[in-house]
Amino acid sequence: MNCQDVISELILNAARAAVPADAEQLMLLPECGPRNKPLMPLLIGLVEALKVTAAAVADNAMDENCPIESLLVFELNGSLGTAGSALARAASL
Hints:
This protein is mostly helical. It contains 4 helices and no strands. 73% of the residues lie in helices and 0% in strands. The protein has helices at residues 3-18, 23-26, 39-64, 70-91. It has one domain (3-91).
């Protein structure tokens, strides 16, 4: 496991711990199956956190006049595309 995978796993574990056990009951969610129901609050929270973090990175880059490397942005966009494709597959059954 490389450093990036370790950090990702730590973040995912922290996010899981932060989501209350009854979170799916606190949110109005469409039917998504019994195995996905507890995952949806985690997914939604991670996506919302990602949006806030990406906006902060953009603001910091502008404020500091220090752009993010294009290759890193390309790789991150690829990861987002992979996640979007997985969700599209889940919706197209």
